[in-house]
Amino acid sequence: DIQMTQSPSSLSASVGDRVTITCRASQSINSYLNWYQQKPGKAPKLLIYAASSLQSGVPSRFSGSGSGTDFTLTISSLQPEDLATYYCQQSYGTPITFGQGTRLEIK
Amino acid sequence: QVQLQESGPGLMKPSETLSLSCTVSGGSISPYYWSWFRQPPGKGLEWVGYISYSGTTNYYPSLKSRVTISVDTSKNHFSLRLSSVTAADTAVYYCARGFLVRGIIRWFDPWGQGALVTVSS
Fold this sequence. Notes:
The complex is a heterodimer.
Chain A: E1 4-7, E2 10-13, E3 19-25, E4 33-38, E5 45-49, E6 53-54, E7 62-67, E8 70-75, E9 84-90, E10 97-98, E11 102-106
Parallel strand pairs in A: 2-11
Antiparallel strand pairs in A: 1-3, 3-8, 4-5, 4-9, 5-6, 7-8, 9-10, 9-11
Chain B: E1 3-7, E2 11-12, E3 18-25, E4 33-39, E5 46-52, E6 57-59, E7 67-72, E8 77-82, E9 91-101, E10 104-111, E11 115-119
Parallel strand pairs in B: 2-11
Antiparallel strand pairs in B: 1-3, 3-8, 4-5, 4-9, 5-6, 7-8, 9-10, 9-11
């Protein structure tokens, strides 16, 4: 199985801050990396697919980058509604696997 | 706009067989792939398996002996069966639509709201 490791596991930031979450794969996954946002008590929502493509309807303050084994999700200017847990997911091969999640809190 | 809705038993006893259904509205089952995920309380996401509109399946290896995913295109829904459940299978179960690139499933959108299944004696 391809192991996905996110860092940090949790972070606290202020409204307007630039926030970066990283995801590392245990082997190269090319650009087959997606990011999901899960708000408390809700289903996951696709934010970024194929490492850097913004899903339709997702605010442009979200962006993704990376390839191979190292990836980042960036929120350029944190908003109160961004309170959530963020997961990366690899689709290079099965079984499909997720990172452990990064819990984002608003100061 | 495609919407997915899970339905299931809620509370089960150990050794029973879990049956969940995901109804797709606002779009057709064909020609997509459809997947199940689960999330134990307070934990992360786990992929369970997926099925194509034509019935091709792929399951998480550690669950493969207990899992069956099926699709009914006439009713526009797909289903999950998980046999011999234990407390470790307690989770919110989500269904989602899969998108393919060059014949390989790559990302999932949208997701259903989720169905909590609790296994307890």
